[in-house]
């Protein structure tokens, strides 16, 4: 199968494609969002943003509980949530020009990275943001909830990584200024382990080109990556896959990257 269309973003930090738990692929082409149901092969035009909203920068499907709910974020920072089954807009969050980074769902809550270094949390049941996480100083490209929804990892343009405790509403990496989880290039690619609590893989863009694996349950001022893999590419997507359950040395890392 091949997907092709005019206007797909060439921004390395955009996320114009997403795959849902209902086996649908969503694709953003400039101002338009389409999706294809891979069971029926039907292609549907879901929505179109206006010129004033900017082009679509990132899209993300809801999780297993909401597989037909799609969030889209535009370059000016507005976020819209669409029900793909009914093609009805559920909510429209207008940001006010803070730009768009990465985004990721955790149940009813959507985390959105911003150009000013903040991360905004929205609840699909509310008409306004529910909280704002401040800690980064540069644009937030990477946003990823842990599998259990307890922690949120974020990565920014300067390579800094933060981990936010959802229950305590506090940054685990910000209580001590000496605690640093960092790459030497922008961080968009983040992946939590589905089999080991607190294990986080992060990928750095140029000039870094490394994958680091952290044990976020043991973050100290002298923290170093639990393991790292120096390669030669810009990383944009990571996925930790166990080859043997619970054994890091036998796990696999799936990567999506572009050459430096």
The total count of helices amounts to 0
Radius of gyration: 18 Å
Q: What does the main sheet amount to?
A: 5 strands, antiparallel
Listing every helix as H and every strand as E from the N terminus to the C terminus, the arrangement reads EEEEEEEEEEEEEEEEEEEEEEE
Commentary on this structure:
Helix content is 0%, strand content 48%. With 260 residues, the chain is mostly beta strands. Strands 13, 14, 15, 16 and 17 form a 5-stranded antiparallel sheet that branches. It has a 4-stranded antiparallel sheet with strand order 1-2-3-4, with no helix packed on it.
Please specify the SSE layout and strand pairing.
Elements lengths: L16 E3 L4 E6 L2 E6 L5 E6 L7 E6 L7 E6 L4 E5 L4 E6 L9 E4 L2 E5 L5 E5 L5 E5 L6 E6 L5 E6 L3 E6 L4 E2 L9 E2 L4 E6 L6 E6 L5 E6 L11 E4 L2 E9 L10 E8 L1
Antiparallel strand pairs: 1-2, 2-3, 3-4, 5-6, 6-7, 7-8, 9-10, 10-11, 11-12, 13-14, 14-15, 15-16, 15-17, 18-19, 19-20, 20-21, 22-23
List keywords for this structure.
about 260 residues; globular; mainly beta; 5-stranded antiparallel beta sheet
Q: Can I get a quick summary?
A:
With 260 residues, the protein is mostly beta strands.
